[in-house]
Amino acid sequence: MYVAPDDEAALAAMSAGRPLEAAPLFERSAIHAYKANEMLSMKLSASLAIKAYAMAGDAPNAERMARASVDAFAAAGRRAEIPGFATRVLEMLRSRGLGAVADAVSQHISGVMGTGFQDPAAPQLPAFCSSCGAAVKPAEVVRPTPSTVACSFCGASLAR
Length: 160
Ligand SMILES: [Zn+2]
Prior knowledge:
Order of helices and strands: HHHHHHEE
Mean pLDDT: 90
Number of domains: 2
Radius of gyration: 18 Å
Strand content: under 5%
CATH class of the largest domain: Mainly Alpha
Helix content: 55-70%
Distance between the termini: 44 Å
Number of helices: 6
CATH topology of the largest domain: Serine Threonine Protein Phosphatase 5, Tetratricopeptide repeat
Bound molecules: zinc ion
Shape: elongated
CATH architecture of the largest domain: Alpha Horseshoe
Low-confidence stretches: none
């Protein structure tokens, strides 16, 4: 497996509680791995970079890195990797209080994947709207945010 020389320094910075120092090193490793077409290494380094930015409270860079990673999988013809990767990244971002970043990243993923991605935070859909009784079709519901769903007929929330 490809491991960039910077990873040791990055891991040391992480364990020393300096995520802001580790984040760009992991990001550089991810870019090296991407260029070498080592997608497993890219996935690991990218996950660590996003986590390090999130731990450092650097929301803009966490979002940028998460979007870029999704785009990298798509560009490499590895779209099948995106849902698993994205699910873990979104969970991590939300667990660190970066819900707005997670929602923005989730919307980007939906743009790349279409109906091929279901945000794990989105509520399960009922068969019928409890307000107007309309049949609920997953492709037709309205999503005001990635984690909320509304009836396309009456606009009522479809959260159960
Ligand atoms: Zn309704």
